[in-house]
Design a protein that fits this description.
Elements: H1 20-30, E1 36-37, H2 42-45, E2 46-51, E3 58-68, E4 72-82, E5 86-95, E6 103-111, E7 114-122, H3 129-147, E8 169-173, H4 176-204, H5 210-230, H6 234-241, H7 243-254
Antiparallel strand pairs: 1-3, 2-3, 3-4, 4-5, 5-6, 6-7, 7-8
Length: 258
């Protein structure tokens, strides 16, 4: 029976979801900022389907958590579990454009071939040193420390590079005991350090000028349009939930800043 969630702030209910620690830490971290539910239609708060053979169907469940605060337009997390095959956490924290802040992004995906780990404070205006330099000066050493302990994830497509910082933590790690150890000993503390630094920036952020905020808004919209167009989960979501629902979810929930 499908669980009932009445708003996006209510805890997700996916049992044995691999990435639960990371969302739990995010929820705890934002508790001091007087969070409010981000408006998400009931059809997207929780969605279930089945895949595999008719004789041995496997359940896939996707739940969406979200909030907003005084300085955050939208923090949302797409949480998916498809049997033992796939587990996904796609977390994006989008600041209001009247604060000169980066996005926070964490995309952790378990596939039959391994775990994909992506973690970053992503710029809205990569070529604007007033937006980036103070962030990167402190984030680069954090990145260097943790990336040195992980295998690299491979090349980043050229059209995507403008949406990542030089402190983009990107790795492909194996399944099994080795991968579990890396998640526990490296990914968890790395995530905590990135998130805590973002929260420090959030706490210190002051309202900027209207002219500056409009420039930030244009950069944020460009980022969202790119993410919606290139979302690598599109094919998987279409397979589980159908094209119409998937396109609405990607464009109206995950990357909804038009």
């Amino acid at each position: 029976m499908q669980s009932i969630r009445n708003n996006s702030l209510q805890p997700i209910s996916i049992s044995n979801w691999r990435w639960a620690y990371f969302l739990d830490e995010t929820i705890k971290a934002f508790s001091i900022f007087q969070p409010r539910p981000y408006p998400i239609d009931n059809d997207f708060l929780i969605r279930e389907s089945f895949f595999g053979s008719s004789s041995n169907p496997k359940k896939v469940i996707l739940e969406t958590w979200g909030l907003k605060t005084e300085k955050i337009r939208q923090a949302r997390c797409a949480c998916l579990q498809a049997g033992e095959i796939t587990s996904v956490m796609n977390l994006v924290i989008s600041p209001l454009n009247n604060y000169d802040l980066p996005f926070f992004g964490a995309d952790f995906v378990t596939l039959p071939t391994g775990h994909l780990i992506a973690l970053d404070l992503q710029p809205a205006l990569k070529d604007d040193i007033n937006h980036t330099q103070h962030v990167w000066n402190k984030l680069k050493p954090i990145h260097a420390h943790w990336q040195s302990k992980l295998p690299l994830g491979g090349d980043i497509p050229s059209d995507a590079r403008q949406y990542f910082s030089p402190a983009f933590l990107w790795s492909k790690i194996p399944l099994g005991e080795e991968g579990d150890k890396l998640i526990s000993q490296i990914i968890k503390p790395a995530f905590d350090e990135y998130l805590n630094y973002f929260l420090d920036l959030l706490g210190d952020a002051k309202i900027i000028s209207k002219e500056r905020s409009l420039k930030l808004l244009n950069g944020q919209k460009q980022y969202m349009r790119y993410r919606a167009k290139k979302d690598p989960a599109r094919g998987m979501l279409r397979g589980y939930f159908g094209e119409q629902w998937t396109e609405s979810y990607i464009n109206n929930i995950l990357f909804d800043l038009k």
